[in-house]
C-alpha cells in the first residue's frame, strides 16, 4: 500500500477501536434495534438525497446493506446488550479476518500469500492471549454466538464489496444502507410498537445521542467509506488482517474511559498481534517469488 492508503487504514482502525465505547454509551439508553434504526437514519438523511446512486444492481446494494450493516450490527448490538464485555466483543468480531480470507479464497479464488497466512496465524495467537486475559467468570454463551454471527456477517459484506468492484465508496455506503434501515425499523416496530420506540428516543440524553452520532457519521461514513475503498483496491487477504489492531485500540479505550483493567495477558497478546501485523506488512519482500 502507498502512504495514502496506509493512513486511511490507520484512521479506520482507530475509529473502529473507539467505536465500541460509543456503542456502549448508546445501548445504556436504547435497545439494539432502535439504536440501529437511529444510526442509519442519520447516515441516510440527507445524504441519500444529495449523493447519486452507484452504478450497481439493487440486489448487490441489498446484499451489502443486509450483511455488513444489518447483520453485523444487529448481532453486535444485541451481544453487547446481553452483557458481552466491549473488549471481548472487539476481540471476537475479528474472526471476520479469518472468515473473509477463507471465503475469498474459496469463492473469488484470491491467492493467500505465505506471509499473509503466517501473519494471520501469529495474530490469531495474540488474540487468543488477549481472550485469556479478558476472560473472567462465565462467558455469556448467547453473547459469544452473537458476536461470531456478527463476524461472519462482516466477512460476507467484505466479499460483497469485492464482488461489486471499484465504485464510489461513499455512494455505496449511503445507498447500500437503505437496505439496512428498513429491517432495523421493522424489527424495532415489531418489538416495541411505534409508541415504545418513541418513548426510548424521547428519553435519550446527550450521551446517548453522542453515541448515535459517532456511530453514524464517524464509524459508518468515515470507517466504512475508507474500508470499502481499501477493499476495492487491494486483495482481501492484504486488507482484512489490518483490522486485527481494532481490539488493541478497543482495550486501551476501555481501560481509559471505562476503567477496564489490562493484565499481563492483555499486553502479551497485544505484542503478539503487533508481531503478526509486522509480518503481514513487511514480510512480502521475504516471500517474494514464493
TrEMBL record:
Q: How does it sit in the membrane?
A: Multi-pass membrane protein
Domain EamA, chain residue ranges per copy: 7-130, 142-279
The signal peptide here is none
Q: Which Pfam families match?
A: EamA (PF00892)
Kindly list the residue ranges recorded as spanning the membrane.
Answer: 7-27, 33-51, 58-82, 88-108, 117-135, 141-161, 173-194, 206-227, 239-258, 264-284
Q: Which GO terms describe its cellular component?
A: membrane
Which InterPro entries does the UniProt record give?
AA-Vitamin_Transporters, EamA_dom, EmrE-like
| Subcellular location field | Membrane
Query: Which keywords are on file for this protein?
Result: Membrane, Transmembrane, Transmembrane helix
Determine if 4Fe-4S is one of this entry's keywords: no
What PANTHER family does this protein map onto? AMINO-ACID METABOLITE EFFLUX PUMP-RELATED, INNER MEMBRANE TRANSPORTER
Task: Name it.
Answer: EamA family transporter
Amino acid at each position: 500500500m502507498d502512504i495514502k492508503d496506509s493512513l486511511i487504514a490507520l484512521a479506520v482502525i482507530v475509529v473502529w477501536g473507539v467505536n465500541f465505547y460509543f456503542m456502549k454509551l448508546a445501548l445504556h439508553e436504547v435497545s439494539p434495534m432502535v439504536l440501529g434504526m437511529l444510526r442509519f437514519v442519520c447516515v441516510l438523511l440527507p445524504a441519500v438525497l444529495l449523493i447519486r446512486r452507484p452504478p450497481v444492481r439493487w440486489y448487490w446494494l441489498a446484499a451489502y446493506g443486509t450483511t455488513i450493516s444489518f447483520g453485523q450490527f444487529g448481532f453486535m448490538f444485541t451481544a453487547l446488550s446481553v452483557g458481552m464485555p466491549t473488549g471481548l466483543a472487539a476481540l471476537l468480531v475479528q474472526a471476520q479476518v479469518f472468515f473473509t480470507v477463507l471465503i475469498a479464497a474459496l469463492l473469488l479464488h484470491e491467492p493467500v500469500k505465505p506471509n499473509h497466512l503466517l501473519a494471520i496465524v501469529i495474530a490469531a495467537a495474540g488474540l487468543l492471549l488477549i481472550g485469556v486475559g479478558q476472560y473472567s467468570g462465565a462467558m455469556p454463551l448467547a453473547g459469544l454466538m452473537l458476536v461470531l454471527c456478527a463476524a461472519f456477517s462482516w466477512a460476507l459484506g467484505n466479499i460483497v464489496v469485492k464482488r461489486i468492484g471499484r465504485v464510489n465508496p461513499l455512494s455505496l455506503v449511503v445507498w447500500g444502507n437503505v437496505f439496512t434501515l428498513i429491517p432495523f425499523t421493522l424489527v424495532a416496530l415489531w418489538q416495541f410498537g411505534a409508541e415504545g420506540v418513541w418513548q426510548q428516543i424521547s428519553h435519550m440524553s446527550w450521551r446517548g445521542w453522542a453515541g448515535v452520532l459517532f456511530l453514524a457519521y464517524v464509524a459508518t461514513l468515515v470507517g466504512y467509506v475508507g474500508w470499502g475503498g481499501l477493499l476495492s483496491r487491494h486483495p482481501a487477504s492484504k486488507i482484512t488482517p489490518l483490522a486485527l489492531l481494532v481490539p488493541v485500540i478497543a482495550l486501551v479505550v476501555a481501560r481509559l474511559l471505562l476503567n477496564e483493567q489490562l493484565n499481563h495477558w492483555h499486553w502479551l497478546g497485544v505484542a503478539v498481534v503487533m508481531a503478526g501485523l509486522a509480518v503481514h506488512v513487511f514480510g512480502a519482500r521475504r516471500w517474494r517469488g514464493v
